[in-house]
Amino acid sequence: MSFFLETLLGGLMSGMLYSLVALGFVLIYKASGVFNFAQGAMVLFAALSMARFSEWIPGWLGMDNLFMANVVAFVVSVVVMFAVAWLIERLVLRHLVNQEGATLLMATLGIAYFLDGVGQTIFGSDIYKIDVGMPKEPVMMLESVFEGGILINKEDFIAAFISALLVLALTIFFQKTATGRALRAVADDHQAAQSIGIPLGRIWVIVWCVAGITALVAGIIWGSKLGAQFSLSTVALRALPVVILGGLTSVPGAILGGLIIGVGEKVSEVYLGPMVGGGIEIWFAYMLALVVLLFRPQGLFGEKIIDRV
Amino acid sequence: MFYRENGQFKTSYQSDQQIFPIPQDRWVILGIVAFAFLGIPLLVDEYLFRAILIPFLILSLAALGVNILVGYCGQITLGAGAFMAVGAYAAYNFLIRVGGMPALGAILLGGLTAAAVGIVFGIPSLRVRGLYLAVATLAAQFFCDWAFLRVKWFTNNSSSGSVSVSDIDVMGWVISSPTDKYLFCLGILVIFSLMAKNLVRGSIGRQWMAIRDMDVAATVIGIRPMYAKLSAFAVSSFYVGVAGALWGFVHLGSWEPAAFSLDRSFQLLFMVIIGGMGSIVGSFFGAAFIVILPIFLNQILPVIGGLFGLDVSIALVSHVEIMIFGALIVFFLIVEPHGIARLWSTGREKLRLWPFPH
Lengths: 309, 358
Hints:
The complex is a heterodimer of chains A (309) and B (358).
Chain A: H1 2-32, H2 39-61, H3 66-91, H4 101-123, E1 138-141, E2 150-153, H5 154-176, H6 178-188, H7 190-195, H8 200-226, H9 235-246, H10 251-271, H11 273-276, H12 281-295
Antiparallel strand pairs in A: 1-2
Helix pairs in contact in A: 1-5, 1-6, 1-8, 1-9, 1-10, 2-3, 2-4, 2-8, 3-8, 5-6, 5-8, 9-10, 9-12, 10-12
Chain B: H1 13-16, H2 23-43, H3 46-72, H4 80-97, H5 103-122, H6 131-150, E1 163-164, E2 168-170, E3 173-175, H7 178-201, H8 203-213, H9 215-220, H10 225-252, E4 254-255, H11 262-275, H12 280-307, H13 314-335, H14 340-353
Antiparallel strand pairs in B: 1-4, 2-3
Helix pairs in contact in B: 2-7, 3-7, 3-10, 3-11, 3-12, 4-5, 4-6, 4-10, 5-10, 7-8, 8-10, 11-12, 12-13
């Protein structure tokens, strides 16, 4: 029982991390109808920039306080991600308004290649560590309830907590601020939003900036777990079934989808994996999403797709 | 001036419905094919065959298959690499497990197996479409990656999923030298392109295009969406599967599942989009662009670095290479979202009127 609970909790926590990446997809898709394949590359880019700046900055400024170095590196990375967002809007998306979905998809794939290349050219291509003081040692919990208790990674716990906090902040931003209202208006109907004076271009920059920040947070959390390295860009591929499962247009869907996929992956790998030779995590997530799609083509929480001739 | 159809009158339906109604086109195409068969083997050295021409021919075949699905039937797929893998491994299994199986038969049966798998993974297309479908086809990619790595039966119990095939024998013709390989691939490509051209001109191709343009409207006028979509998946996967088998048997000789990874799927989709969706000739342009560009960058970057007195390391070259590759793709999509095929047809239109455009 306690082993099952451990698996379940582990799944929930990694699911929280998936939803963090998935959130980036949903934000951009909602606001601009672009399915952003470059989200993974953005996570990698952000993680690399965080790792390298926190390493370089103490040398440049001559300070040896780890905390301050991390704070400065974080600020610099935010600025870098804003610059990336602005450049993407300015140089790419602005020229591709009203193109077909497939063309936009390919454009973001091109951006992904470009970002991968630039990131590794500037920051180098080794594995860098991000040390933001996350505790590594596992802790025992619920010892009074079960015999032996359950083993939980403190790091995962904090990561899940930060993700939840970010989701909360984003929800407040979307629901309560004027910019958030404008974003939701654009998501509903581009033309109507434009006709009442909402500047589309600026909204897109803001959305990409927000997606950049989620990428940065995801990059820091994943990076401090696995190290900032090229394989981070494949995290996006793990997050795709989450988006599909939850619905491309729904923020709560991304979170719940992440939890479902996280748990499904872990449980299937532990209980089903040994029967077929292991390593089934990645396609199991996709199959799970596929089965849901067969019954609900718009995902669990997506807007109903209405066909008109 | 030379390219004008004034004075050419069609006197029968047959002549009006030819593949190339304008004689100049017909002769140029025939000339190109004849040159490819007779001229190129005399002119080209071994390196060019191995590095550019053979990959170009095989990937054009695969791009043709993807174009049938994406360009003609409008179903975005990110799983083309998986169908290449299915074709290659199925052909391998037919070759070693069935006694006396001819290599060509194994390749075609590999294509048919890929078609069957394609139909299975095409079933979601009946319910979902667009980007949801694109992600659904990724399931095929990851599943096949996993299956060929972990299920030992497919790879004849080899440890890392790597298998190898010796030089194949087609009706007494042992295909071993690069020229043989080139001619064999070229022959298959010509036959398959002709088939594809005729398919998309015929009733089934029209059904695919109707589904692509608006599937609800197509259903209303009596096109069966299940039949049209699944047949597109089957034909496309057949082409891609045959290309995969050729890639394994003829180009690589020995291969492992990584040869057909997700990157390959992306590459094929790039070919279709850059070449031109819904255009047979576009597949060739796209394949040429994607095959030649990395080789070109790889050659030219150290030279440019040398000009500025920089010592360019191999790692840096590969990073700058994917950077420029990505940037060029974005640039290309912005300049000509409809692909090289559109540039080609615009050029031809201009040529018809030249030198008196008014």
